[in-house]
Amino acid sequence: MRLNFDFPLLMSLIFCVALSGCEATAAGIPYLDEQKVSAGKIVYDSNCASCHGAALEGQLNWQKRSSTGYLPAPPHDETGHTWHHPDQMLFEFTKYGPQRYAGTDYKSIMPAYEGKLTDEEIWNALAFIKSQWPTEIQKKHTEAFSQK
Ligand code: HEC
After folding, report:
1. 97-115, pLDDT tens digit by residue?
2. Are 64 and 100 a contacting pair, CB within 8 Å?
3. Could you tell me if the CB of 28 is within 6 A of ligand 1?
4. If DSSP states are collapsed to H, E and C, what string results for 84-146?
5. Mean pLDDT over residues 35-64, rounded?
6. What is the Å distance from ligand 1's center to 132 Cα?
7. Is 90 in contact with 20 (CB distance < 8 Å)?
8. Is 65 helix (H, G, I), strand (E, B) or coil?
């Protein structure tokens, strides 16, 4: 019985070590790197703040679709659901736009940033966003999604 329970955990640990400490997957959002966070704030202020808010507060009634079928921009602070999503998903959502997850026909005001921002700029913007969360939320997000 015990063996059954421990086996997957053991295997994933071995797999992790085999990937030399999982460096490749641990990259993630660099929210503890002050330089990246301040570079990210500049990216955020000029590309994201107009919709997601200067203080990450989002737009009014962000959960309610307009009569034309568009959602307002959600907050990126702890009241929103950004912190419920893994690093890679947030990155791809920003790079390729909501259609990446919601289907090519999905109507959204959020643009895709591929070709407008570099991958590094996108990671930095996300670093700024995560750096603004309360420590408790940062911790929850890291524990839920980072592969150590
Ligand atoms: C023109 C308005 C607009 C701009 C500018 C914009 N967004 Fe969005 N964003 C939205 C909307 C609206 C949604 C909700 C998706 C939908 O339409 O259903 C969203 C959703 C998201 C989500 C997924 C939801 C979540 O909470 O995780 C992420 C991540 C995101 N935006 C990141 C960014 C980043 C980073 C930038 C700047 C580089 C940016 N957005 C710029 C409007 C915008």
Report:
1. 999 999 999 999 999 999 9
2. no
3. no
4. HCCHHHHHHHHHHCCHHHHCCCCCCCCCCCECCECHHHHHHHHHHHHHCCCHHHHHHHHHHHC
5. 98
6. 16
7. no
8. coil
The ligand 1 atom nearest the CA atom of 89: 29
Q: Please tell me the residue having the least CA distance from ligand 1 atom 13.
A: 73
**What's the CA dihedral at 21, 27, 30, 36 to 10 degrees?**
120
Q: Show the CA angle centred on residue 93, arms to residues 103 and 130, nearest 5°.
A: 150
Identify any residues that bridge with 114 across adjacent strands, giving them in sequence order: 117
* Entry pTM: 0.85
Taking a C-beta distance cutoff of 8 angstroms, is the pair 122, 97 a contact? no
Contact 123, 30 (CB under 8 A): yes
List of domains in the chain: 29-145 (1.10.760.10)
Average pLDDT along the chain: 87
Q: How confident is the model at residue 20 (pLDDT cuts 50, 70, 90)?
A: very low
Asked if residue 137 has pLDDT above 70, the reply is yes
